[in-house]
Amino acid sequence: MIDPKERIARRIGRELSDGDLVNLGIGIPTLVSNYIPAGIRVFFQSENGIIGMGPLPEKGMENGDLTNAGGQCVTALPGSAIFDSAMSFSIIRGGHLDVTVLGGLQVDENGILANWMVPGRMVPGMGGAMDLVTGAKRVIVAMTHTSKGNPKIVKKCSLPITSNRRVDLIVTELAVIEPFPGGLMLKEKASDATVEEIQSLTEARLFVAEDLKDMV
Amino acid sequence: MIDPKERIARRIGRELSDGDLVNLGIGIPTLVSNYIPAGIRVFFQSENGIIGMGPLPEKGMENGDLTNAGGQCVTALPGSAIFDSAMSFSIIRGGHLDVTVLGGLQVDENGILANWMVPGRMVPGMGGAMDLVTGAKRVIVAMTHTSKGNPKIVKKCSLPITSNRRVDLIVTELAVIEPFPGGLMLKEKASDATVEEIQSLTEARLFVAEDLKDMV
Amino acid sequence: MRIVGMKETISLIKKDSSVMIGGFLGCGSPDCIINEIVENEISGLTLVANDTAFPEMGVGKLIVNKCASKIVVSHIGTNPETQRQMIEGELEVELVPQGTLAERIRAGGVGLGGILTPTGVGTVVQDGKKVVTIDGKDYLMELPLRADFALVKAKKADYFGNLVFSLTARNFNPLMVLACDTVIVEVEEIVPVGSLSPDEIHIPGVFVHYIAVGGRLQ
Amino acid sequence: MRIVGMKETISLIKKDSSVMIGGFLGCGSPDCIINEIVENEISGLTLVANDTAFPEMGVGKLIVNKCASKIVVSHIGTNPETQRQMIEGELEVELVPQGTLAERIRAGGVGLGGILTPTGVGTVVQDGKKVVTIDGKDYLMELPLRADFALVKAKKADYFGNLVFSLTARNFNPLMVLACDTVIVEVEEIVPVGSLSPDEIHIPGVFVHYIAVGGRLQ
Predict the structure, then answer these.
(1) Residue A192 gets which letter from DSSP?
(2) Do C170 and B83 touch, CB atoms closer than 8 A?
(3) CATH code for the domain in which residue B31 is found
(4) A106 three-class SS
(5) B115: contact with C, CB 8 A cutoff
(6) Which pLDDT value is given to residue A2?
(7) pLDDT bucket at C215, cuts 50 / 70 / 90
(8) 3-class DSSP state for residue B24?
């Protein structure tokens, strides 16, 4: 069976359209770049100030002046553009970013995301997460369905939230869930799981789409 | 006798210091560039987006992509820099401009300038004047002392004001006047005019500096 | 991003649209697109621009040919026709300090709800606006500006729409690209992808919807 | 603008100053100036930076060597020492969303009294801040940031101080140049006046007070 993280990334890849400007967070979201559907071109923006980031450089061709938002040396694809941090977040906050894919600690039944701190335990800071969730046209959360057996899709976030903006899609290894004003809609499920199994691993109530499909 | 406008421009030239970033308005202020004291280098900023503007080009070497804030073709000196309108006014409004020299319709005894419209008669718009007067480190008004015999230095501006910021210096062909919290201080007078003559052409009351000098 | 013919640009712009147009007294305006608007007698436009240039130049032509019913600008002193139409009540004119105009357009493009600026405090510009006092200093709360269309001029683009401007023809153009729903760029030349250094690109192509090659009129 | 030796830069920076430092996880930080601060054991600094990088890199070194008593940053997750000092109460940490940090520094440099941003509404970032509603949408009023010193890194300068940055080493550097009373720039090279095109200069030299050539550490 395909690795759960790869399954999530592959499914999210299918959400991208030709010409999209996309920002991928650290972790599972980064894997999405391996699953761009054939025939489309997407542009990757990185909040440190580049559109058109390419893959890691060949050994010996790294340059410390060209990095991604994780501090790793990257390459620049033909047609890439560089800008300062104000412009980088103008893109994000001004509604010019088509899709942001971020990891999540919790999403609640209002579609509210918490992904930047666990009080008293892990306080890395929000970095660009609050700007991305508030400003992007489409926010996709990429996360495992549970953490150590505990549901991450909850009734109400107990962790500090990232934004009061409802996210657009949650993709886990078990389900594709679309938050809507009335709650969370289960749109797709893993073929090897039942709706009941998914609900039992989910604290929030899931509405089931009439046209529920299997995840591909 | 030297032309009154040239006299004003020459006197203002002596206010500039080495390294100053200077914005000159249309009219008398433009003439100041002819009177930069020997041995100092000043940088001219133009609100359309350039620092290091040079003189008019030779005939046949004009290019419509390089103009001043009056729309005239200019040249670029070595070391000149170009930027967009947001940066241009970031310089002006952020307190990075050392000196702005502007024309005036009226200045009142609080040192408040009116220089952008005469209601019902002339409404060109404020252009960058409000930003310049509000944001520059030092605001110098260059104007003739009277207009058709009527004082331009008045008790209270009857025309719409440009900014509520007190200007730093008023230079006319007759006087150098420094506004201060208590009023207007006559610091220098033309050698061919008496204090009484100057006061008679000035509606606002002038305080006379203890060390009153002749204009040079 | 799509490359279109100059004639096609005009089919995108509807009567009564709001339109931002780059340029500073004609320098850096999209002259070919402006000519198309005039020829097609599009009217009722709300224009956002720095100025109305001169009667025979840039935005000035749109005024002379009565394409606009409202303008938001910092300066109209170089175009007597603008003043005439304003006085006759044919044209609504909103005057905005030039730096405030730049910041309002920027705010519209970068997702700010407004900005606090000292420019205009205590002047007629303050009328009807909220004054906010911070650390004892007064500021006007100025609101963002956006428009349906940006008509801008760049020196060149690559086939991804990355833009490079030329000298003082840059001015308001880069700001307007971010602040409009549809962005149409007139360029003198389209160059191959990869032929521009990422450091010399002034505006990334992701903001650009249409590009038309217009040559050089002056 | 004055060109100084790298050792001289440090004599300008006093204990307990506020200092903005460019860089993004170490990329584009003024590494030579940072080394001088560490060697001279300057302490009590208030740092404004995007992050605290890694323990052996960029701003991270200033944390490890206890040069700072307060930091204003968007992210500290890559430097465990920052977290340790914060938890032990040795270091005060103000966390600011990255885009808000950029806009606040910009506001400090361009003379705005504040900006209205939707980022942070309804989160802990809202605590103690004014909420302004415009057209039914809530915004936080965020205030400008300024500092005594900007320590920035550029690829090259000319002898007038005009700056060109390199690739993603640009990041916060250009913004900080406008927002500080004294601007000290570390460059790899100083080039003749007139050898840079006016269109390729990222920041005009008029903002720069001191330049020191630092070579290239990595």
Answers:
(1) T
(2) yes
(3) 3.40.1080.10
(4) strand
(5) no
(6) 78
(7) confident
(8) strand
Q: Which residues of C touch B163 (CB under 8 A)?
A: 119, 121-123
Tens digits of residue pLDDT in C42-90: 999 999 999 999 999 999 999 999 999 999 999 999 999 999 999 999 9
- Domain residues for the domain of B87 are 4-214
Name the β-bridge partners of D117. Answer: D140
**Which residues of chain D neighbour C170 with C-beta distances below 8 Å?**
199
Q: A209 and A4 in contact (C-beta within 8 Å)?
A: no
Nearest CB neighbour to D167, from listed C117, C167, C199: C199
D201 vs B91: CB contact, 8 Å cut-off?
Answer: no
| D215 has a chain A CB within 8 A of its CB | no
pLDDT band at C187 (very low <50, low <70, confident <90, very high): very high
pLDDT for A93-121, tens place per residue? 999 999 999 999 999 999 999 999 999 88
User: Domain residue spans in chain C?
Assistant: 2-113+145-213
User: What gap in Å lies between CA D126 and CA D130, rounded to an integer?
Assistant: 8
Q: Which residues are B22's β-sheet partners?
A: B44, B99
To the nearest whole percent, how much of chain A has pLDDT over 70? Answer: 100
Q: Write down which chains contact chain D via at least 3 CB pairs under 8 A.
A: A, B, C
Which strand (E) or helix (H) includes residue B185?
A: strand B183-189
pTM for the model? 0.98
Q: pLDDT band for D6, please (50, 70, 90 cuts).
A: very high
Reported as a single tens digit per residue, the pLDDT across A144-185 is 999 999 999 999 999 999 999 999 999 999 999 999 999 999
- D124 burial via Cβ count (<10 Å: 0-12, 13-18, 19+): middle
Domains in chain B, number: 1
The answer to whether the Cβ–Cβ distance between D109 and B52 falls below 8 Å is no
Mind telling me how many Å the CA of B138 is from chain D's nearest CA? 15
Does residue C51 sit in helix, strand or coil?
strand
Pairing label, strands B75-82, B50-54: antiparallel
Q: Do B76 and D204 count as a contact with CB atoms less than 8 A apart?
A: no
- Active-site residue B47, yes or no? yes
Determine the straight-line distance between the first and last CA of chain B, rounded to whole angstroms: 13
Q: Rounded to the nearest 10 degrees, how much is the dihedral formed by the CA atoms of A6, A12, A17, A21? A: -90
Mapping DSSP to helix (H, G, I), strand (E, B) and coil, where does residue B172 land? coil
So what's the pLDDT on residue A1?
A: 60
CB C95 within 8 A of CB C112: no
Q: pLDDT at position B216, please?
A: 85
Q: Give me the interface pTM, i.e. the ipTM.
A: 0.97
CB of C88 within 8 Å of a chain D CB? The answer is no
Mean pLDDT on B8-14: 97
Question: What would the mean pLDDT of B55-83 be, rounded to a whole number?
Answer: 96
Q: Which fold has domain C2-113+145-213?
A: Glutaconate Coenzyme A-transferase (3.40.1080)
Query: Which residue is catalytic, options B15, B47, B173, B188?
Result: B47
Write B61-66 long-range contacts (CB < 8 A, 24+): B63/C167, B64/C26, B64/C27, B64/C169, B64/C218, B65/C27, B65/C28, B65/C155, B65/C166, B65/C167, B65/C168, B65/C169, B66/C167, B66/C168
CB pairs under 8 A between B and C: 144
Q: How far does Cα C132 stand from its chain's mean position?
A: 28
